[in-house]
Amino acid sequence: MRADLTQYGVEEARTPADVDRVLAPGHGTVLMVVNSVCGCAAGRARPAVGMALQHPVRPSKTATVFAGGDEAAVAHLRDILVEYPPSSPFMALFQDGKPVYVLHRSDIERRDPQQIAGLLTDAFDQFCV
Questions:
Q1: Rounded CA gap, 97 and 88, in Å?
Q2: What is the tally of structural domains in the chain?
Q3: Is 38 annotated as catalytic?
Q4: What is the pLDDT of residues 55-98, one digit of tens each?
Q5: Distance from C-alpha of 12 to C-alpha of 118, rounded to nearest angstrom
Q6: Domain that holds residue 40
Q7: What is the full DSSP assignment across 15-27?
Q8: pLDDT, tens only, 33-48
């Protein structure tokens, strides 16, 4: 399940310090993915990330935390995203350490991977220029 994302060059952020390092201001635009073992992560979210990262405009960095595995890292990310209800899977696009676009589980579970990838690439076109 981890390799489903790392094969696309997605970096694992397994500790709170990793999350802070990845999201530090000055690192450009970062897509952070909360991965999980659920079916919508496997069948929708992870394939969508792979498709979206083929787009010519993409974030400077893409990273992931794994719900149920990287518990401290996930909790730290959720503290950063306190204004958004926690969910997994979940995706957030950050600019200079601040969230500018999010996809909640409810946005993911009702779409197929191509539609989710389309939402991501639209956000990439808007925020990664």
A1: 20
A2: 1
A3: yes
A4: 999 999 999 999 988 999 999 999 999 999 999 999 999 999 99
A5: 23
A6: 3-124
A7: SHHHHHHHH-TTS
A8: 999 877 778 789 999 9
